[in-house]
Amino acid sequence: MRSLPEADPGVPDLRSPLRYLWWNARRQMPPLLAGIGFATLWWLVQALMPAVLGKGIEAVTAKDTRALLLWASILLGLGLLQAFTGIMRHRMAVYNWLAAAYRTVQLTSRQAARLGATLPKRLSTGEVVSVGNSDIAHIGSSMDILLRGIGSIVAVITVTVILISTSLPLGLLVLFGVPLMAVAVGPLLRPMHKRQRVQRELSGELSTRAADIVAGLRVLRGIGGEQVFAERYRGESQRVRHAGVRVAGIESVLEGAQIVLPGLLIAIVTGIGATFAVAGEIPTGQLVAFYLYAVFLIGPMRTFTEMADKITKGHVAAGRVIRILSVEPEMTGGTGSSEGGVLRDSYSGVTLQPGSLTAVAASSPDDAAAIADRLGRYAEGDVTFGAVELRTLPIDQVRSRILVADNGARLFNGRLRDELDVRGGADDDEVRSALHTACATDIVEALPEGLDAEVAEAGREFSGGQQQRLRLARALLSDPEVLILVEPTSAVDAHSEARIADRLAKARAGRTTMICTTSPLVLDRAEHVIYVEDGRVLAEGTHRQLLDTSPQYATTVTRGED
C-alpha cells in the first residue's frame, strides 16, 4: 500500500464520518471495483445454479441423457467459476480491508506527529489507543462488506428477474419481500449506533484510566492508594461491561432477524411454489429451483443486515478518527528563515547568547518551565531568534534547531542504541561520549546486552535517576543548535550531579545551552546565571556574584538555609 502524500487535495471532510468513509473508498477505487466485480460474479454464479439444477432435474424426468450431460457440464463450469471468483473476491476483500485500516493508521500517526505536544492536551490516551485497537478494524470491515453487499444486491435483482420470467406471483413476492425485510431491520440501526458510540467512549476512558494506573503504580504503592484506584477501575470496567451487554442485546436481535426474516421468505416462496406444482402450473424441476432460490436468498439477506451492522460500526469508528484529525496544533509556523543568533524571550527578559551555557533559576519552577516552552515554541510568546521572530519560522525547522528536554519525555520500548540515537547518525564514540557526559555509562555496562538491550515500555526497568540520565544522553546525541534542559539532574545524587555539571559544560562548549535549575552544583558551572521571579528577570551574573548581591536568589538556591 503506497504512502499517503503530505498534502493531499482529497483530505476528507472533517465534519462528516460518512464522507471520511467515502474518501477512503475513493483512495482505493481500482481494487475496490475489482473486488466488487469478483463478488458480483461470485453471487451471480450462485444465483444461476438453481436454474441450471432445475433444468437438469427436468432432463432426468424427461429421460433426456444428452440434455442431462449438457446441464451437468454447465453446472460443473459454474462451480469452477464460483471457486475462482470466490478466491479472488476473498483476496480483494482482505486487500481492501488492510488498505482502509492501515491508511487510517497512517493518517492518525501523521496527525499525532503533527500535533506533537498538543495531542495529550486535547485527547486522552485511551481515545487515541482505541483507534489502533478497534476502530481501524471496523473501518476496514466497512470497505470489505461493500464487495459482498453490492454483489448481493445484483444477485437478488437477478433472482427476481428469473422468478418473474418463470412465475409472476413468485417474482413479485421476492421483489417486494426483500425490501420489506431490509426496512424491518432499519429501526434497530439507530439505537445500535448510539449504544456502540457510548460503549466506545467508555472503553476509551477505561483505557486511559488503565494507562494512568500502570504509569503511577510505583507512586500508588508508596502512598497506599492501590485499593482506591482498583475500586475505581472496577467500577468503570463494570460500566463498560454493561454498555457492551446493551450493544450485544441489539446485535443479537439483528442476528436473529438475519435468520427469521429470510426463513419466512423461504417458507412463503416454497409454499406458493408447491401449490403451483400440485396444480400443474410449473414442472417439478422449477419447484426445486424455486426452493433453491429461496434458500439462496438467505445469503444475500444476511449480507444486507451484516452490511448495515458493519457500516454502522464503521461510521462510529470514523467519527472517532475524525475527532483526532480535526484537532489543530496549538503552535504553527511561518515561511521565514533565520541564521540563528541571540534567542530572547521578551516577556521574561531571558536572553541566551550564542555559544554560551546559561542557567535560569526561578523562584517558581513553573516560571522556568513556561520560559522554556516559549523559547522552544511550545507556547505562544514574543520570542526572537537572531533578527527574526520565532513564530515566523517553519515549525519543523524550530523543532530541529531548538530542543527542549524536560522530565516529561518518555523512553520507548526497543533497542537502547536506537532509543538514544533517534536520528541514527551517531557512531559508537559519539554514543559513548554522550553516555559519559550524562554519567550513564554504568547503566549500559550493567545490562547484559549493553546498547543492544531491549528497553521495556516507558523504560520501567530503570529507576527515576537512571531514566533521567538516559534522557539527557539522548538529548546530547541530538546535538541541536540550541539545547534547553529543564531540571536535568533533579533525580540524581549530588556526586553524579556535580560530574554531570562539569561534563555538560565541556560537551556543549561553543553551543547555545540553557539549563533551568536551582541546583547550586549546576549553577556554579554555568557561564551566566539568570534569576527569575514572578516570571521576570530580577538579576543576572555568575552564581557566586548573585549569592552576594541578590538575597532572593540566595534564598531560592540555598532553600532558605544559611
Automatic annotation (TrEMBL):
Family annotation (InterPro entries): ABC1_TM_dom, ABC1_TM_sf, ABC_transporter-like_ATP-bd, ABC_transporter-like_CS, P-loop_NTPase, Type_1_exporter
Organismal lineage: Bacteria, Bacillati, Actinomycetota, Actinomycetes, Streptosporangiales
Keywords recorded for this protein, A-Z: ATP-binding, Membrane, Nucleotide-binding, Transmembrane, Transmembrane helix
Name of this chain's protein: ABC transporter ATP-binding protein
Highest taxon above the source species: Bacteria
Entry keyword Glycosyltransferase: no
Molecular-function GO terms, alphabetical: ATP binding
Domain ABC transmembrane type-1 stretches: 33-313
Residues that span the membrane, as ranges: 29-48, 68-88, 145-164, 170-189, 259-279, 285-304
SUPFAM superfamilies per record: ABC transporter transmembrane region, P-loop containing nucleoside triphosphate hydrolases
Record localization: Cell membrane
Membrane topology: Multi-pass membrane protein
Residue ranges of every copy of the ABC transporter domain listed in the record: 322-559
The keyword Cell membrane appears for this protein: no
Predominant location: membrane
